[in-house]
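Maleylacetoacetate isomerase
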Amino acid sequence: MILYSYWRSTTSYRVRAALNLKGIAYEQRAVDLVAGDQRTPDYMAVNPAKGVPALELEDGTLLTQSLAILDYLDARQPEPPLLPAEPLLRARVLAVAHSIALDIHPVNNLRVLGHLMGHFDATSEDARAWMCHWMTEGLTAVEALLPTRADFAFTEAPGLADLCITAQCYNAHRWGLSLDPFPKIARVEAACLALPEIRAAAPEAQPDAP
């Protein structure tokens, strides 16, 4: 498998962590989002949406969108599972994952910041305030959805919600948002980063990190 990713991409972080946890071998190909690699004709043939991650399977099939890729990986190799089998618990895990992937991330990415700064004269401080505002809104909801536990979000091992939370926490640290108001989220991040498979997926551990 070939994973097209960018070291700082939280969506790529989710997929790297899942591949590592499942023990699936993959090669990484860096797509430098700051340099504009995602807009080259060659990469647009891989992912017409001009984003990361994209996963190329052994037969050349290309998959895009991190949640779709994670769903494929879980179906292909069910152990360890990213989603619980019990329907109600599964719905709760998905609610947290979707709160991050569908509520926070769409307004907290490089394309949105570029548009704000390029077309609406937003300053660097405006960009930071924008990022922190939407993260605070979204993480407040996530914190309320999480049960009180000692380790991972819902189960005894990391799953889809945990991977989404941990990647989003990286973005919070990057933009200077304190996790003090979110003790359950901080607990999940700590439990995940204690695992070597997830630490190996962290942005600073990637070959394209500066």
